Amino acid sequence: MARADDLIDRRSLRRKVSFWRVVAALAVVAAVAVASLLTFDGETGGEEIARVSIEGMITEDHKLLDLLDRLKEDEAVRAVVLRIDSPGGTTVGGEALYEAVRSLAETKPVATEVGTLAASAGYMVAAASDHIVARRTSIVGSIGVLFQYVNASKLLDTVGVEVDSVKSSPIKAEPSPFGPPPPEALQMIDSLIMDTYDWFRDIVRERRQMTAAEIAAVDNAAIFSGRQAIDLKLVDAIGGEEAVRQWLEEEREIPAGLEIVDRKPDSEDGLPFALLEAGSRSLAEALGFDAGILPWSVKAMQLDGLVSLWHPSR
């Protein structure tokens, strides 16, 4: 009987502990939601310099584009600083951000502060701003376009699979993973890549006010340190936040001492997703679920279409 009573007591205790874990997790979620509403979007009510972070893979992020559009109309925002730390991404995403930054720059000063990396589409966005500041060891450049595809024909031969197709044209649905592309398809892809590359190179030349010889020195997809980029006209100054402030105050007459406020895109439900995620993870763990299997744990993304993306060779 004693053992049976002990088992009953232990089960009761476990139920109570689980109950209070759930209560605690829900309290965390509620607290995060309230705090998020109170601090939504980082607005301060007074004049400020808005800082927008552009990090990781660049895609056509409509919420980020909406934020840049809102900053144009925000009278409290005297200037905008783009904090870029990105290896690039899709050319469409870079183009959309480039156009949004140029539109924003028509209404107020926009400067870029490069972190570790602003390459490919990341540099494309930086070039849209009025002034670029980077650290000596920052990486910039990689002016180029990439189109990658998988050729799994050898694998299919190994496993004994043959894929047949009937096409209206040799270039239909090419390149295909089922075999090497025909010459016509390679010509098509080359034309597509070079057209986009010419556009990318031309906007860098225009924005950085380069001569033909100057753009030719950097348009081969090479990367450069911030110190090298000064002489190559890819960067305007060496430094960080203070260098950006100095330019804004001296060249654009922005009042000294204005607070730099981080402004972030809206999340799906109007709350900062990262904070809500933390509370939700706590709830999942309290309920005994593996938080790692939840949808937000999947960080990989697929980049479709042309890509302007730098990555170190292995």
UniProtKB/TrEMBL annotation:
Signal peptide stretch: none
Gene Ontology biological process terms in this record: proteolysis
Residue ranges crossing the lipid bilayer per the database entry: 20-40
A GO MF term: serine-type peptidase activity
Coiled coil: none
The family this protein is said to belong to: Belongs to the peptidase S49 family.
Name this polypeptide is given: Signal peptide peptidase SppA
Organism: Fulvimarina endophytica
Encoding gene, per UniProt annotation: sppA
